[in-house]
Design a protein that fits this description.
single chain, 162 residues, mainly alpha, 8 helices
Length: 162
Amino acid sequence: MTTNETAGTNGAPVPAPEQRLEMFKLAPEYYQAMIAVERASRQGLDPRLTHLVKVHASMINGCAYCIDMHSTEGHQHGEQDHRLLSLPAWRETPWFTARERAALALTESITLVTEGHVPDAVFAEAAARFDETELAQLIAVIATINVWNRLSISTRMSPAAK
C-alpha cells in the first residue's frame, strides 16, 4: 500500500508507507550485531546527551522512525520538549550547554561528512569538552545512529500511530 494523497482529509492520520523489508527477519545476524554495536556505542555517555545526538542526526537525515523513538526515549530520561523541538536551530537557543553544543556540531559534521569532512575546529571543540574515551564513544553513537537512519529510511520503517 502506498500513501494515498486523499487520505487524511477528514482529519484522520495518513497511513504510513508500507515497509519494504524487515531487516530483523531477513538479516537476523546483521541486525543482532547492530543491536550489540548500539549498546556498545553509548557506554559511558549521559543518556540525555545520546538521545539529543540521535534525534539531531535523525532530523538531519529525515528519519521519522528514529526521531520518534529517540525523542520518546529522551523524554524517559528527562529531556524536555522545547530542547528536542529546537534541535534544528540549536545555535540560536540559550538552553544547550557548551558540551551539548560541541556534541551537536560534531553530530552535524559527521552526519553531513561530505560537507567539510569534520573540520578541525569542530573536532577540537568536541575534544575540549569530552575526554578521549567519551569522544570516541560520542563518535561511535553518531556513526551508529547514521547507520540506523539509513536502514530505517531505506526499508521504510515508520513510527507507530499515536
